[in-house]
Amino acid sequence: MHRYIMTSTAYMRQSSDIPASSDIDPNNDMFWRFNRQRLDAEQIRDTLLTFSHEIDHSVGGRHPFDHRLTYFFRQHDPFVGNYQTNRRSIYMMQQRIVKNDYLDLFDGPDGNIQMSERKVTTTTLQALFMMNSPFIYERSKKIAGVLISEQNEPEDRAIAAYRMVFGRVPTEQEVAQSTLFTQDAVASLTDGGMNDAQADHTAWTSFIRGMISSNEFIYID
Question: Global pTM?
Answer without folding.
Answer: 0.84
